[in-house]
Amino acid sequence: MSAGAALSSVWAGGLEDDRLRALLREDAPQGDLSSRALGLGRQPARITFTARGPMVVACIEAAARLLQLCGVVAVPAVGSGDRAVARALLLEGHGPAEGVLLGWKVAQNLVESASGIAGAAAAIVDRLRAAGLDTPLACTRKAPPGTHWWAAWAVEAGGAVMHRLGLSETLLVFPEHRALLAGQDVAARLQALRRQQPEKRLVVETADPQEALHLARLGVDVLQLERFSPAALAELRAALWAESLTTRLAPAGGVTLDNALDYARAGADLLVSSAPYFARPADVKVGITPVPGDGGLSP
């Protein structure tokens, strides 16, 4: 199932309506004062979203559903993960002006922010694929608080995967964890983790090449290499091969579009990055126009 198809099923099923309503409440806790004061009410209006420039679309289904919650008949013209060209139609709808204006800006902001993330993720993935590499890009959980639920869709729309959806689903032992185990047998504690969570891969982060090799010898499944250079990663990869160790290597911290290819060529099994979350939002043009007659709004 494509990212767009997955999103469509989520929004069609209403599973995220509460989150969308929360966005509306944040923006208009008592409704749209300007539209109400102007007496627009049920005046029929049309709304369109178009791309101002090339973009990777994300969360357009969520934007349509948000407008629907405002009483607007809204239909996406594309799906999440689609590549749109400049001036391409992304969404169109019609409904009472007050509903159109109530959902307009929140829906636009959501699509622009999500599509910016998707585009940044896609740029890294495209660069890897153009070089003939299938190294996965995994995005961290460092999206701004409150945005994880849609940032994950944006990441997938860009062709990347989520590194961690949250603390509850993965075993990732940081140096901060190990610092609190001072005086204890770390190897024994790691083995205990395996027994307690036999279905989970054991991931350990380190910033030290010697410690990384030691952890690989202990049977760690994945080493998250914090701030390793591509050269340091390549040296570690050679050391693992020399000992027939199969630990996977995941550079993290500072992985960007500029150096992703260097890390992949150095022998990374996957790239861990937060960079897409800091991308510039995509630019979506919104058009709102009156509809002749009642636009089908009368009972």
Q: What is this structure, in a nutshell?
A:
The protein has 299 residues and is of the alpha/beta class.
What's the overall average pLDDT, rounded?
92
| CATH-level-4 superfamily name of the largest domain | Aldolase class I
Put simply, the count of helices is 11
Sum up the overall morphology in one term: elongated
Helix content: 40-55%
Strand content: 15-25%
What is the total tally of β strands? 13
N- to C-terminal distance: 38 Å
Order of helices and strands: HHHEEHEEEHEHEEHHEHEHEHEE
Strand order of the largest sheet: 3-5-1-13
Structure description:
The protein is of the alpha/beta class and 299 residues long. Helix content is 42%, strand content 19%. It is built from eleven helices and 13 strands. A four-stranded antiparallel β-sheet has the order 3-5-1-13, with helices on one face. The protein has a four-stranded parallel β-sheet with strand order 8-9-10-11. It has a three-stranded parallel β-sheet with strand order 7-6-12, covered by helices on one side. The mean pLDDT is 92.
